[in-house]
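Continuing the batch. This is chain 6 of the set; chains 1 through 5 are on the previous pages. Same settings as before, nothing changed between runs. Recording input and output for traceability.
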Amino acid sequence: MRPRLRAERGADVRRARRPLQRLWHRRHQRGHRAGTLGGPMNANANEVVITGVGCITPLGLSLEALSAALREGRSGFGEIASFDASAYPCRFGAEVLDLELADFIESSKTYIDRTSAFALAACASALRDAHWTGDESVGLLLGTAWGCMDSLQLFAQKLVEGKPKFVSPLPFTHSYANAPNSLASIEFKLRGFNACLTSGHVSGLAAVEYACRRVALGKEKRLLAGGSESLSEPIFHGYCQRGVLSSTREPRPYDPASIGMLLGEGAAVVAVEEAESARQWNTPVLARVLGWASCLGESVADGLARSMRDAMARGGLGPGELDAIVGFGCGSPALDAAEIEAIRAVFGEARPALTSVKGWLGEAMGAGGAISLAAALACLEDRFVPAALPTYGPLPDGVRLVAGEPLDGAAGTLLVNAADPSGACTSLLLASA
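Output for chain 6:
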């Protein structure tokens, strides 16, 4: 009896899996567009707005500080101080060196990972900016590419040294990728929907995109969303091994002669809310979120073209109606060329202004897209588009790159892009309030 039952059960499982396999195949063939949750958005979907922002960056610990630094063209790069990088081919990065967590939260921490510390500080700032208090209606979506690697390294080092008796359990409890979610939920009494997203370099912006979808569908009214990442030695070692880091102190986004990126770190979190809820509470609106989309393409250029088209279509804008793009250009020749290819394909002769903040802040990996979103909010509020490059050189054809000096004037509509080398891409369409 037992073998026959196992055989029958196996046959049932295989039959049950076939429809799921066919569904996966259809989605894979056309490129899964996560902005639709598997179908078109309801015409009566809620209007989505951003009512608060917190950002922790190498150029400052607030949106105001970030905006001022970008306008002035200040660089956040220096020789890496948080670990010894002298033996590596690259010694430079953009680090957050002046964060005092006690300035943001009331409770004291015996130990906390830097990724979690960045997230807690950004969440505290976003809650304060949106005039929210933690309660059962507020949820949290955080993205990270690598999680809490400092804590994992600290815990594992004793095991590698063959000293398991001397391993402290405390770092291990802080080493999970979702540790920032847990700590923030406890600290701010957030009892709503909670999730940690890990999608490489798109993680932070993908978390915001997911938050917008859930609010639009009426699943939540208020969500904190964003990303956090710290620059730890294991991560740095991996990127050096891949040969993608520049040996100079100045990465050059979108420059055809660029030789690589530099890494950064930090966090950015936004308060995503139903527009009606914001009106009821008289909460000032930083930006309206018109459209959003995520896509896994056959290549970065393919995925990004799809995500930009979907976000623009959801927002009801044509190519000539977009003022600027805050892109993900970081100095990586392959990634930068892919974004330019996608922009040419989608916008043609319309040529919205193109910039990236990663020439000043570095590639913050899972937090990079969320920090770009914070920079976009600064653009809308302070009416300028920062330069992507500090100096001119041969500029790429077919795009209107902002270089040398910021572009002053109204930027009423902005598209924020994030992409991972895997082909995962996310785009978010913003408009001034």
